[in-house]
Give the backbone structure.
Amino acid sequence: MSLWNEAYDTMNTIESRYEVDSLPLDQQLKLAEIKALLAIGQELSQIHHEGINPDYSRG
């Protein structure tokens, strides 16, 4: 299992056990930070595999 999948599963577990709005503000911010970092990592991985603009090709 990749770290991304593990972090995603952990986030889903937390969000299903607790109502996010009831968490302290620092924990809500940490969840948002982790989600943002996961999204950035996913985008960077896509760029690594497909390039910045895979639809563009020099003809």
The radius of gyration is 16 Å. The first helix runs from residue 3 to 17.
